[in-house]
Amino acid sequence: MDRRQISYVKFILEAYDNVAVMSTLDSREAVIQVTIAPGCETMVDGIIQGLAGEIGVMPVEGAPAAGMSGKQAIRMPDKMKQVEIEPKGSLFQMKEKLLYISTIGCQMNVYDANQIAGVLAPMGYTGTDTIESADMVIVNTCTIREKAEQKAFSFLGRLAKIKSANPSLIVAVGGCVAQQEGDAILKRMPHVDLVFGTHAIFRLPEMVRRIESSRCRIVDVRMSDTIEFDAPVDGPLTDGQISAFVTIMRGCDNYCTYCVVPHVRGREASRHPDRILEEIRMRVDRGVREVTLLGQNVNSYGNKEGLCSFSELLARVNGIEDLGRIRFTTSHPKDLSDELIDAFGRLEKLCHHMHLPVQSGDDEILKRMNRRYTRSAYLEKIDRLRAVCPDIAVTSDFIVGFPGETDRQFQATLDLIETVRYDGVFAFMYSDRPNAPATAFSGKIDEPTKKRRLQALLDLQGRITREKHQAMVGQIRRILVEGPGREMESGDADMASSRVQWTGRSSSNHIIHFAVPEAQRDKKELLTGAFADIMIEGAYAHSLRGRLIDGPIMATPGKGETSVAA
Ligand code: 5AD
Ligand code: SF4
Q1: Which residues approach ligand 1 with their CB closer than 6 A?
Q2: Which class is 243-471 in CATH?
Q3: Architecture (CATH level 2) of domain 475-565
Q4: Which ligand has its closest atom nearest to the C-alpha of 268?
Q5: pLDDT (tens digit per residue) in 304-332
Q6: What is the pTM of this model?
Q7: Hey, which of 254, 298, 428 would you mutate to test ligand 1's pocket, going by the most ligand atoms within 8 Å of its Cβ?
Q8: C-alpha to C-alpha distance for 116 and 101, rounded to whole angstroms
Q9: Listing from the earlier edge strand, what are the strands of the sheet with 325-329?
Q10: What dotted CATH number matches 97-220?
């Protein structure tokens, strides 16, 4: 039995509340141990029967337990029974099917897409880049702003035509729009087979199986306050992928008045640190060197469940051998603790970058956004961060044109940007979202004013970024090399030019392109996933350019970045 079969069987079993998969026995790869709650044997029997028909899973011969045989039935201290089930590899004939996933939205959705691919892989689904060749298309949607939602519906609209040309195609809608709209999507779009919400990913294999066998239409937008399925899923990695996302918590309890997240991602819930570490180790074993820990508000990680604090989690992740770098996002300023700030001085793998969304520079607007911090409290935290870690890069999110925002209040935002001198910002025009309280606020700002304010903000930040990039020229930065740039990807195999572009990121998350000189060509194979020191020689609006001066350096980087004056 291969790994795909094992994880498929484990996956199906783990989806049931009353079954716990204990282990895959090392000595006998083909045997999975499960623990079943008393009274649930018949239910498990049914699952096994289903799997037997599908992939030839068989109970190990000669053992008891309600209809299902187990090699051994061991009394567990908690009165649970342990049985062994033996999948029969030879009967396993899985047709390879192609899966196209379209992901719109944030990093959380990128991570979810990887989970989706991971849970469907054991069913025979492998990724494809062309919709036309796919057996199933999954649209992983976002509803954070109006535009993202429109994008999802316009993509779904286009799929109607593709489905009419290929009626056996399964069309599934997942993510935040699916959670928000539920069966309204099925009613509105007859070509959609499946709508699954943000908490339903681990139930996907079961639902897809039902659709494949009976072509039914399914909606699953059930939500839960706790994380029901916490097992690490080893999703696909692209060739040479050295950076990966790992979700450490989901949902949000903050209820900012403009935000739809608490309504579509549910209550805040944290994953167990052991599962998080296991998942990171799995990624690292497959070549990942950098992880970004994800959550809507990582600063309150573990609080509710009484798990460890976020800083403690970071310290544990920092200890993972062969992991080179740790990033995280997003942090709510009100929850940014001194303990976490101090972690930047303590943990050598923690990147010197903090994304700290402020949204507005005006106290009255912050209050109406329900952000629960003031401008001065925010600035104090930035000062503390910079005191502990002088070269830390700080980035932020902004909303312009929040209901009732006056020119003076917008000026306060510009003034805050000048004061902080961010390394980069994301800025958005306010849009009404379903269930978000600000949708009912008066004083809506007209589109031209919002556009004008957005442009003014971006112009200001553009100038600051250029100045900051210019000041980096002449410095040496240690980067983690992500891979060759376009020149090589486009198949320029003989590399006619003597300088081939490569790309990496500094600890401060600056994108740095660099050339590998002719004489150092022999190092190029070693470069992806290695650390290298780059002398910065030029600055662009969104990136920097430099020259390889030392590398590849395979060891975990030393504390901070090397930086010398021009
Ligand atoms: N309108 C505009 N921008 C929004 N964001 C969240 N909700 C809205 C909205 N209704 C922005 C915030 C947040 C980022 C992810 O999206 O800046 O930090
Ligand atoms: Fe939305 Fe506020 Fe939660 Fe961020 S902290 S996800 S902006 S409610």
Answers
A1: 144-145, 258-259, 357, 359, 397, 399, 428, 430-431, 433
A2: alpha beta
A3: Beta Barrel (2.40)
A4: 2
A5: 999 999 999 999 999 999 999 999 999 99
A6: 0.81
A7: 428
A8: 9
A9: 243-247, 290-294, 325-329
A10: 3.40.50.12160
